[in-house]
What we know:
TIM Barrel, Arc Repressor Mutant, subunit A, 3-stranded antiparallel beta sheet, 14 helices, 39% helix, globular
Amino acid sequence: MKFGVYVHIPYCIQRCHYCDFTTFEQNSIMPPEDYLELLLQEITQRSTQISPKELTSIYFGGGTPSLFPIDYIHKIIEKLELSGLFKTKNTEITIEINPTTINTQKVKQYLDIGINRFSVGAQTFSDPLLKTCGREHNSQQTLDTLDILADLNTNFSLDILYALPLQGMEQLEIDIQTALQFKPKHISAYCLTIPSGHPMNKGRPKEGLQVEMLERITQRLNQNGLFQYEISNFARPHMESKHNLLYWEDQSYWGIGLSAHSSLSTWEKGLRFWNPKDFKTYKKQVEAPTVATYYPHQYLPDSQFEELKTWEALTDFCHISLRLNKGLSKDALRYRFGHEAESLVAERLQKVIKSNQVNESPSHWFLTNEGRKISNKVFFELTFLKEDFLH
């Protein structure tokens, strides 16, 4: 089994208008040196229930991890290794970076401490749209950052947002072509997702145009050697995000830091646990005297973990597998859940196979191009309840 670590760095220069992650403007929360100590303490206390393991990936996300001092990032990597979570030459170590926080010297320093992948929050190359999103950087700063990463021949990915207010196909085309100029190894293209009453819903493209936007993105990226491997992710051959694949392939990962989530797929039908979203509770839990426990969730209150039931785990497994272009493996499904579950899934899928939303091969089920456009409707067919397992 593969295993990864996610480290949450909640500091931001300013919060984006669409953001629903646990992030804070950097001067409104505890100093970085205090947060570092909590992270190191959490690793010390809880790694005994996780390690020893060889790491597939380490991912520094946020927030804006590139606001965190580089030597602090290095100390976290070192602490993980000292705690039995080992990196190898194949371990992917990613840091999310904001264009306002990067220069050539800083990128070189990241490379020196073992960072081997950068994720750039570009979003769009339109200054008016960046302002609408509440991003503090401008398009020129993004171009400068991408120039640095390309000149140093680094492995980098960038995020593109589509279906933004007043964004048309022409601007989307500009965003795609501008991104491709830098020959990134990976691009994530995310449809803006916000609650129905959110102010940014005003002026957004209609649903039909949103579908056309994803089709255009897919077409342009495929033409330039970036192939879709998951609904929102595109990569050059063998350059898929190992961090992303841990999630989509139902592998295990440990989340460290404020609000970070963990998942152990090897625990019966699956175990999830998570840290508090507020600093006071997180600090209290990390600093509390620890009692030796064999299981990683035994120190947590009931509100911070869930042991998945069979029908919940099967639902998740089907949904995340079908998001991948390679699809849902019949062998993996049978191995994890048994013949009965395989028969149940096969029965449920007949309707969407007939409507050309899912295709079937001898070994897999996978979404068609039509199915990707309306994937939530397909997933609805594969949402299981307790009653499905009563005889």
